[in-house]
Amino acid sequence: MDEQIPLSSNRRRARGAATNAASRFDLSRIAVDDGWDREEELPLLRTEVSAETARSIITRNTSPDLSFDRSVNPYRGCEHGCIYCFARPSHAYLGLSPGLDFETRLVARPNAADLLAVELARPRYKVAPLAIGTNTDPYQPIEKDYGIMRACLGVLEAYKHPLMIVTKGTLIERDIDILAKMAGQGLVRVGISVTTLDADLSRRLEPRVAAPGRRLATIRRLADAGIPVRIFVSPIIPALTDHEVEALLQAGQEAGADAANWSLLRLPREVSPLFQDWLAEHVPDRAARVMARVREMHGGRDYDPRWGHRMRGEGVYAGMIGQRVKAAIKRYGLDRPLPDLRCDLFAVPPRAGDQLSLF
Predict the structure, then answer these.
(1) CA 94 to CA 84: how far, in whole Å?
(2) What are the angstrom distances between the C-alpha of 190 and each of 51, 103, 121, 176, 193?
(3) What is the DSSP track for 128-163?
(4) Which helix (H) or strand (E) holds 245?
(5) Is residue 306 part of a domain?
(6) Residue 242 lies inside a defined structural domain of this protein
């Protein structure tokens, strides 16, 4: 049931959102007293996973803000529960709440790898780097049981297809065997997202993500395996994590990252009220200041969706953060040019029954 009022902390233990408000495509439903004079103990919210038979798996985009034009999402929703996640509004298209539903009512796509193989083999397919993890995390906890991301990696390795991965999930270490082979051929690059070095703040912002130190250890393991890995300082939250910019970049470099990327907090659609509820509960003394800075960056609004502005903001504060990040990236040697991912190796593997080449 969608609930507009905050659920008890016991029911939503280890969850990011406080409410399950209806999406913009659904009717609002509010829990009310049933009239019986007795207390009712509601159960802890559990993660539910349903399977979706996808009809296509490669999503295209034309955004000038992004360095790729295609991506794959093995899952809808994300159990990590990051309160600031800009992907939350996508759950509304399923008729589900971008609040607690986004974290607890997940959708897996078990046929993703089979579809990927079919779409890559089409005669008109033109190879370019594919991104995974740009919407919901492919290494969220349910991947351990479903293995959809690993199956997709198997296809991409077989086709020698270039790949970019972004994740907070340390489960990526399971797939170092495949990723190291692809890295040896110049086919893969990984980004590990670290929002703060404060473990307590991280637990409240991103309740089911590994602690910051554990994610830095993942950077080290990937780098030691010869896999190019960058640290994503994202999102930078005004008046909450912005003071950590330099420390985060230094920690990433010391862990073995060879590059860095960053973005400022963005609060599209339903994310803004959810995030403001979180501020009121967890950092009430700073809530007004955080939102004042956010609006300063977005022309007085909670969010400015314009390309070229949505990820970096504008104005004095946004400019200052940009200068600090640029200086720190240079200071720690994270600005070295990296080779492009290779596209010339791409080939559709032969299948049983294919006609053999004469040469």
Answers:
(1) 20
(2) 27, 24, 24, 11, 10
(3) --EEESSSS-TTSTTHHHH-HHHHHHHHHHHHT--E
(4) helix 245-255
(5) yes
(6) yes
16 DSSP 8-state letter: S
Give the pLDDT score at 64. 82
On whether the CB atoms of residues 142 and 109 are closer than 8 A, the answer is no
Residue 224 is predicted with a pLDDT of: 98
CATH number of the domain that 321 lies in? 3.80.30.30
Distance CA 8, CA 238 (A): 28
Phi and psi, residue 344, nearest 5°: -75, -10
Kindly list the strands in the beta sheet with 130-132, ordered across the sheet, starting from the edge strand earlier in the chain: 58-60, 70-72, 130-132, 163-167, 188-193, 229-236, 259-264
For residue 234, give its domain range.
49-79+107-331
Query: Does residue 265 sit in helix, strand or coil?
Result: coil
Is residue 44 a contact partner of residue 10, using CB atoms and an 8 Å limit? yes
Considering the domain boundaries, does residue 158 fall inside one? yes
Record the tokens describing residue 59, joined without a space.
């999503």
Count Cβ atoms below 10 Å from residue 43 Cβ, excluding itself: 7
Among all chains, which residue has been given the structure tokens 């009430």? 284
Q: Does 215 fall in a domain? A: yes
- The token pair that represents 175 in the structure block: 């797939």
CB-CB contact of 276 with 291 (8 Å): yes
Q: Which pLDDT score is estimated for 253?
A: 98
pTM for the complete prediction? 0.90
Task: Tell me which long-range contacts 70-73 makes (C-beta under 8 A, separation of at least 24).
Answer: 70/128, 70/130, 70/131, 71/130, 71/131, 71/132, 71/134, 71/135, 72/112, 72/116, 72/130, 72/131, 72/132, 72/152, 73/109, 73/132, 73/135, 73/136, 73/138
Over the chain (359 residues), what is each successive 10-residue block's mean pLDDT? 56 78 65 55 80 94 86 96 94 90 96 97 96 95 97 98 98 98 98 98 96 98 98 96 98 98 94 96 96 94 83 91 97 94 95 56
Distance in angstroms (rounded) separating the CA atoms of residues 264 and 343: 31
Which residue's entry shows tokens 């589900």? 96
